Every structure is written in C-alpha cells, then in structure tokens.
Amino acid sequence: MIIGIPRALLYYQYYPMWKTFFEELGAEVVVSSPTTQATLSSGASRVVADTCLPVKIFLGHVISIVERCDYIFIPAIRSVKRKAYNCSKFLGLPDMTKAVIPESPPILDIEIDINKGKRHLYQAIYKLGRHFIGNPVKVRQASLAAWQAHLKYQQLMSSQGLTPPQAIAKLSGEVELEAPTSIQATIALIGHPYILYDEHISHRLIHRLEEAHNKVLTPEMLTTEELESATTRLVGNAHWTYEDEVVGAGGHYLETRVDGVIGLMTFGCGPDSQMMDMVHRWATKLGATTFMSLTLDEHTTEGGIVTRLEAFLDMINRRKRRQIEVCA
Ligand code: SF4
Fold first, then answer.
1. 8 Å CB contact between 15 and 168
2. Ligand 1 mean position to 169 CA, how many Å?
C-alpha cells in the first residue's frame, strides 16, 4: 500500500513521525516534489482567490501525487496543546481536499485534538492503523516508534541547529552539512515552517541570507522550553496551536539580541497578522534589534524581496558600525 504525503503545511513539523508510523505498519511512503509555479497554479485553480497561499500550495501538492499513491494522508489537527487551537484551515483540510480534488484517492483523515483527552487520541491512532493491520499491539508499537522518531527529529534540530529540510536529509543519510564561514550578522527568521522552508513561497530567503555570509537561526533551532517560556513572557497563554513558531521564537531571538529578526507571513492570514504585530511591538519596546516583517503572496516578486533584504542588511551593518564607533 502506498501512502502519499504532500510536501506542504505540517509536513515540515511531522514528516519523520508520519513516515515511521506508516513504514512500521508495512506501507510505502511517497512525498510530492518541492513546490514550483505549476504546483501553485494547479492548487490555486481549485479554490477561491481569498484562500491563503500555503493552502493553495498544499492542494497543488495533493494534485501532483494523486496518481502515485493508494491513499493520501491528510490529518485534521485541531489542537496539540491544551486550550490552544489551530487555524480553521487545518481543521477543514481533509474535507476541503475531498471537495475540490474529486480525483484524489481515499484520504486518511485522522483527527488530532488534545483537548478531547488521551482516550480520543489513542482511538484516532488505532482507527488510522486499522487500515493496515488488525492487531492493536502492532499499531501501538508503530505509534511508539513514530513518537521516538519525532523526538529524535526535534532534538536533532535544536541541538545541532538544523532546519527541518536539513534534519530530514540527515536522518535519511543524504547530506554533508557545511559549517558557515565569516559571519557578517546573525539573523533570525520567524514564521511557520511551511512558509520559511518552502523555497517557492520564501523566494530562497534562507539561501540568500547565507550567501551574504549571515548566520540564520529559525524557530526549530530552539527547544520547546525556550519557545514556550518566551511565548508566556510576551502573551501569557498561547491561543493558537503554532504560536510558538512566531511569538515564542520572535520573543526569544529579540531578547537574546540577535542582529536582526525577519518575520515571514502570507497575505490574508488572520492568526499571523495578530502574532506578528505582537512581535513587532516587542521589538519596538526592546529597541535593540532590527526587525522587518515580510508579507508574501503569489504576486510577490524576487526583485521586491531582494530590495527589502538589501535595505534590511544595510540597516544592520550601519547599526553595528555605529556601535563599534561608540565603543571605540
Ligand atoms: S495559519 Fe494562516 S497561513 Fe497558515 S493555514 Fe491558517 S490562514 Fe493559512
């Protein structure tokens, strides 16, 4: 049995865990190729223009693998933390996909909602596992192996400073990582992984910063404790499931005084516009770090990004030069 996983949205958070679970149950996993303009165009052609860019791209990824798999895995992740809920787009993702991509193979649409308790979670996992095997003990073993894979993935990123694509490649034994040389500045990028690491959405922002000899830090390079405590300092209890990726990471990197923080979000995203505004206010209050937010959509051009980036790096360099003069 072949399970298709779209390389979009929560792929970057959970791919090693999902892959391990399905493979432990004897299935094969295929992943869609990295995003291109064709991926975006095909996804965008199925939904109204107001749909956010990451969802359009997700649907394009589904379309790209419909003929390569027996099932497509699309979980409806409602919450992974108590009293913090996910954006409504994630909740309706399996139903939306069925409605707009009728040619899709059957969708495995497990619901994850921590607020409904452990029993609901275990039942949802067993229900998913029963597509492959009737033995609940085997499903339990597969879910434990999957959880271990997830912990190892998170630990790899936070302890070795890897991005999700680097950690996934390392887990599959694919790459040699190069140590950065001659650092100009340390820049933190904050935002959801499906924006930061999708090179089509972000216009290769991480590579552009590294090519300009900057050290790039991202939310996944922090521990859960660091992210959660920064979120608590800024806003108290998190209201959104993935608030730590924006508010927690932004707060932490501003407080530790990296040279610059760039917030990435997509046009039309309600949760992100609120969260990014809180980080912006915190940056203004602390006043020690240059902050820029970029709102991306399908009309964002490479030229526009490069111009903003050059101006941002110029500001950081000028600020650093001034500090050196004052010290001298
Ligand atoms: S959080 Fe924003 S960008 Fe992400 S799926 Fe929801 S609306 Fe789209």
1. yes
2. 26
What confidence tens digit (pLDDT) does each residue in 242-278 have? 888 899 999 999 999 999 999 999 988 888 888 999 9
CA 134 to ligand 1 center in whole angstroms? 36
Say if ligand 1 is within 6 A of residue 266 CB. yes
Find the range with the poorest average confidence among 57-66, 166-175, 210-219. Answer: 166-175
Distance 296 CA to ligand 1 centre (A): 12
Pocket test for ligand 1, best of 79, 89, 198 (most atoms within 8 A of CB): 89
Tokens of 163: 């991005």
> CB-hemisphere CA count at 13 Å for 164?
22
Answering whether pTM is above 0.85, one says yes
269 CA to centre of ligand 1 in angstroms: 5
User: What gap in Å lies between CA 212 and CA 321, rounded to an integer?
Assistant: 17
Q: Can you give the pLDDT at residue 62? A: 98
For the chain, give the mean pLDDT.
Answer: 92
H or E stretch at 48: none
> 91 CB less than 6 Å from ligand 1?
no
Angle, vertex CA 324, rays to CA 320 and CA 328, nearest 5: 170
Closest protein CA for atom 3 of ligand 1 = 269
Q: What is the pLDDT of residues 170-186, one digit of tens each?
A: 998 876 566 666 888 99
Residue-range domains of the chain with CATH? 2-160 (3.40.50.11890), 183-327 (3.40.50)
Give the per-residue pLDDT at 40: 95
Q: Evaluate: CB of 189 within 6 angstroms of ligand 1.
A: no
Percent of the chain with pLDDT over 90: 73
Which residue stretches of the chain are H helix?
11-24, 37-44, 53-65, 88-91, 93-100, 118-129, 136-160, 164-171, 193-196, 199-202, 205-211, 224-235, 247-255, 270-286, 302-327
